[in-house]
Design goal:
Blueprint: H1 7-51, H2 53-61, H3 66-106, H4 120-146, H5 150-153, H6 165-191, H7 194-210, H8 212-223, H9 225-230, H10 233-243, H11 246-284, E1 289-293, H12 300-307, E2 312-327, E3 330-340, H13 342-346, E4 361-364, H14 366-372, E5 379-384, E6 387-395, E7 403-406, H15 407-413, E8 418-426, H16 432-441, E9 447-450, H17 452-495, H18 497-505, H19 510-548, H20 560-577, H21 579-587, H22 590-594
Parallel strand pairs: 3-7, 4-6
Antiparallel strand pairs: 1-8, 1-9, 2-3, 2-5, 2-8, 4-7, 5-6
């Protein structure tokens, strides 16, 4: 007995399979958001525990053990994770319920009614994951803070410099991973291996994160040279504050770096893939759009209507005739032959593909040539209304028609010659709207529409949809990173209370202090955007090379408008993130601030 699904079960299974794919994509982006959150959490806990160094030292001095110090900090992290994971889970469930209600209200669902449901697993898994991420991110700062001896902690703590043993090991390992990852990226492109490309991207990105304490301050000084020169003391102080703690600056910029790199990689990869495939289609198929009569000939009025369509820059009519063909003594009846004239060549995108089509030759597509047993140079006898004409075969798929001859040879062949098709040249850019207009014009005309433009329009539509969805989801990680910048600035302002007070006592105005904090925020954002954009461009191009490099030359297309929009949005968000820290820094009076310990 054969087992089969009834129609309802089959539909359900098909839709469930699609849902599984979407769920997998959403979980991948959730993992990215969690990774960025972990960077922000680790940086925040590191700064908080560094500010409590003296408090921790006093606890150790009065008898607290390292285990007790660690336990207290872990409990704090656990409480934070429990509270905010519960809030996040509740918000997620509420949003899901709202989307289901909105879909039911709009009536746009495939099903009569969507049912909102949840389960213990759906509630516990995100809650537990959130708590685990917070604990894992906080563990390293907690352990590092607990290692400080009581008497040493009572003195001002220095930062780990790149020249220390730990810094040198970290940078050496990062450089090694960066070099190894770059080699894997090249290997992935050359061998068209997506696995090698992915491994190279992840390895090299990990190397960049490890050398961040060296790379981020260097970029901050380079980018900060302009505000330092233009804005005077506040600009110079802002640059100095941004790079005063290299590890902190690297961790703060790294959170934004992850999001911007993924956004840029996705945008560059999608646009470069589209440009590469489009170039291959243009090279392989010379006709943007071909309107062919399925029976008889094209109406003259239809050709005139096609000329009037916006986006159509040229139209050439293509005559054709029905003939018999003789190949190796075998006659094939009722074969369609079309003729190419100078007018036809003028609307082709790649006219060089017809260089071998001269009087006395006949183009045949590779599929037809294989079926008829025709090879380059074979002799083909064509019989129309004027007697037999012998031509030399050229195997080429330039136009997509089975048999193509010159206009002069078509006249020699004779027969029932009529306008069988029209070739259309479309304007550069997105052909989607033009293809839709062509379909509307020929809807009831009994014709077929072919050519590369329809394929390009469909590909562009799919890539655009995927790109917008991906960018929308990745925007969450960028927002989280900007929250991390705000946290870092807030805690840094508290650390620099006495410094701010001294600046106020020396004559610095509140506006200058606010400007200094804003410049510092924007500087960190620009470092993340600059480095992330550079890495994203490299990864995007390398990814396209690994995917399609074996099939077609890679055409690099960088959406500068989108990248500029990401940079501008990051700068604006960084300024917004700096508002509260800047106000807090400016409100402290000199006398009160100098009195703080």
């Amino acid at each position: 007995m054969a087992w089969s699904l009834d129609p309802d079960d089959a539909v359900t299974a098909r839709l469930a399979g699609g849902t599984d794919v979407i769920t997998g994509m959403l979980l991948a982006f959730a993992a990215v958001a969690l990774f960025v959150s972990a960077i922000v959490i680790a940086n925040t806990f590191g700064i908080l525990l560094a500010r409590r160094t003296r408090e921790t030292a006093l606890l150790r001095a009065v008898g607290s053990t390292r285990a007790q110090v660690v336990q207290g900090a872990v409990v704090e992290a656990l409480a934070t994770g429990v509270v905010f994971s519960a809030i996040g889970t509740a918000i997620g469930i509420a949003l899901c319920g709202g989307l289901v209600a909105l879909a039911n209200a709009s009536g746009s669902s495939t099903f009569p009614e969507l049912v909102f449901t949840t389960s213990i697993t759906a509630v516990l898994v995100p809650f537990v994951v959130g708590v685990v991420v917070v604990l894992a991110a906080a563990l390293r700062p907690v352990l590092r803070a607990s290692r400080v001896a009581p008497l040493e902690a009572l003195r001002p703590a220095g930062t780990v410099a790149a020249r220390s043993t730990a810094g040198l090991v970290r940078i050496g390992l990062g450089l090694a991973l960066l070099a190894g990852g770059a080699g894997l990226l090249v290997l992935g492109w050359q061998t068209a291996s997506l696995a090698a490309g992915l491994a190279g991207g992840m390895t090299s990105f990990l190397g960049v994160l490890l050398i961040g304490s060296l790379l981020v301050p260097t970029l901050a000084r380079i980018i900060g040279a302009v505000p330092a020169a233009v804005l005077g003391a506040p600009g110079r102080l802002a640059v100095g504050n941004a790079v005063a703690n290299p590890r902190r600056a690297a961790a703060t910029a790294s959170a934004l770096l992850v999001g911007v790199t993924l956004v840029t990689m996705t945008a560059v990869g999608a646009r470069s893939a589209e440009a590469s495939i489009t170039a291959e289609l243009d090279d392989r198929y010379s006709v943007d759009a071909a309107v062919t009569a399925t029976d008889g000939e094209l109406e003259p009025g239809l050709v005139d209507d096609l000329r009037e369509i916006d986006g159509v820059t040229g139209v050439a009519t293509v005559p054709g005739s029905e003939v018999s063909l003789g190949v190796d003594g075998t006659t094939h009846e009722a074969q369609a032959v079309v003729g190419v004239s100078d007018e036809t060549r003028s609307v082709l995108r790649n006219g060089d593909r017809l260089d071998r089509l001269t009087d006395g030759t006949i183009y045949v597509t590779s599929d037809v040539a294989e079926g008829f047993g025709v090879a380059d140079g074979d002799r083909v006898t064509v019989r129309g209304g004027s007697g037999p004409v012998t031509l030399t075969a050229v195997v080429d798929d330039a136009l997509g028609y089975d048999w193509v001859v010159t206009g002069a040879d078509l006249d020699r062949i004779g027969g029932d010659v009529a306008t069988r098709a029209a070739f259309l040249r479309l304007a550069e850019g997105d052909p989607g709207s033009t293809v839709e207009a062509i379909d509307e014009v020929v809807a009831d005309a009994g014709v077929e529409v072919g050519g590369s433009a329809a394929q390009r329009a469909e590909m562009s539509q799919v890539l655009d949809a995927v790109l917008y969805v991906v960018l929308s989801l990745l925007a969450v990680s960028v927002v989280i990173a900007l929250v991390g910048i705000a946290n870092t600035l807030s805690l840094s302002v508290l650390e620099r209370t006495q410094e701010s007070a001294l600046l106020r006592a020396l004559g610095t105005t509140r506006a200058q202090l606010r400007r200094m904090v804003a410049i510092e925020s924007v500087l960190l954002a620009l470092v993340g955007v600059t480095l992330g954009s550079a890495l994203g461009i490299v990864y995007g191009v390398a990814g396209v090379g690994a995917l399609v490099g074996e099939l077609t030359p890679v055409v690099v297309e960088i959406p500068w408008g989108l990248l500029g929009g990401v940079a501008a949005a990051a700068v604006v968000a960084a300024l917004v993130a700096a508002v509260l820290p800047a106000v807090r820094a400016a409100r402290v009076s000199p006398a009160a601030a100098l009195a703080t310990d």
